Amino acid sequence: MPSLPHLSRAVRARHAAALLAAAALVLPAVAPANDSEAEWALGGLALKRNEAISMDAEDLYISAQEVRVNYTYTNHSDTPQKVLVSFPIPALPGDDPGWVEYGSYPDWKALQFSTTVDGKPVKWDVAERAMAGGKDVTALVKAEKFPLAWYQDSEFIEKVGALPPAEVKRLAALGLVKRADDEEWGGNGYMPGWQVQYHITREQTFPAHAAVRVAHRYAPLAGGSVGGVLHAFAQGELADVRAEYEKKYCIDKAFLSGVDKRQKQETAKHGEGGSGSAETWIGYVLSSGANWRGPIGDFRLVVDKGKPDNLVSFCMDGVKKISPTQFEVRKKNYEPDRDLNVLIVQWYSFGN
Q: Is the pTM of the predicted complex or chain greater than 0.85?
C-alpha cells in the first residue's frame, strides 16, 4: 500500500470510511486524448484549430486493458497540409494540490502507444513541458536545475518548503512556486507551481482533397481503488464525495441500487468481510477533437466493462447494450463539449 505523505486533511476526511473498510490502492486516472493539430509556438507546444481538415469519422473502443481509436480525416484544401499533430495527455500532478502520491504516477512508456496511417506504422515523439498558469515554464525549470517531474521526488517538496522568504518571492514571481492550499504541506506554506504536460506528437501530411485513415492503439494507465466508496453512497453516506462521482461518472440511483444489490449478494455468498469491490477509472479527452474543421461526422464509442457481472457508468446519452460486456454510442455531426470518464466496478473474494 503506497504512502500518502501529502494527502490533505479534507481529502482524508472524505475518504476515511472507504480507507478504513479496506486497504486502498489509489492511482491517478490517466486520460489520453483525441488528436489535435499542434504548433511549436513561442513558449512551447500549443494546440490550434485547423479549418482545412475535417474529422469525418471516429471509432473509439475503451476497456481497462486496451484503447483503440480509428479516425478518418479529409483535407478539403487544394494543397497538401503538413501539420504537427499532438495526442495530448493531461498534466501531472492533478488539480488537487492536497494529494501527491509518490511512486504512483505513470511511466508513459507503459502506454505501448502505436500509430498507423493508412495501415502503415509511423513513428512518434514525446514532448514534455512544464506548465504553470497556462504558461510554458520548461526553460525556467531547467535553468533552476529543478526536476521536471517534481511530484516523483519526495525530497524536492521538503526542499521547497525550506526555502528562505527572499528565494520563495523570486521563484513565485517566475511562477515556479505557489502558495499551498492546505496547511499540511508545512514548511513555508509553498509548493512547486508547475504541472508536467505530455504530448505524443508526429508530423502528418494530408494530401489535397483526399481521405487519410489514422489508428492509435495503447494500453491505458487506468486509475482505481481497492475498497471504493460506492457502497457508502448507496447507504446515503459521504454526500460530498458522491456529488463528485455523480458529476464525473453520471452515477444515478439505479446504478447505486445495483452496487448495493451486488454487495449484499457477495456478503451472502462469502460472509461479512469475505469479499470486496474495486473501482477502475479510465479517462479520455474527447474535447480536443473539436479542433478540426466542423463536427465529427460519424462518431462511435464502445465501452467494454470486462466481465458481464461488472458494473459500468459514464456520461453519454443514447447508450445501447450490444453484448454482455459492451455498450455502444453512435452520433452524427458530433461536437464533444466534455471529456469522457468511465467508472468500472468489480467484486472479488478474499479467498480467491
A: no
The residue to which cell 484544401 is assigned:
77
User: Would the CA dihedral through 120, 292, 89, 172 be positive or negative?
Assistant: positive
- Write the pLDDT tens digit of every residue in 238-253: 888 888 889 999 998 8
According to the model, what pLDDT value does residue 32 have? 60
Q: SS3 breakdown of the chain: % helix, strand, coil, rounded to 5?
A: 25, 40, 35
CA distance 246 to 251: 5
C-alpha cell at 113: 502507444
Residue 294 predicted with pLDDT over 50: yes
**Residues 21-26: contacts with CB under 8 Å, at least 24 apart:** 21/227, 22/226, 22/227, 22/276, 23/226, 23/227, 24/225, 24/226, 24/227, 25/1, 25/224, 25/225, 25/226, 26/2, 26/101, 26/104, 26/223, 26/224, 26/225
Residue 22 has pLDDT above 60, yes or no: no
d(CA 127, CA 11): 32
Q: Which set of grid coordinates corresponds to residue 83?
A: 501539420
Q: Cell match 494529494: residue?
A: 99
pLDDT band at 317 (very low <50, low <70, confident <90, very high): very high
Phi, psi of 160 (to 5 degrees): -65, -40
Rounded to whole angstroms, how far apart are CA atoms 168 and 115? 44
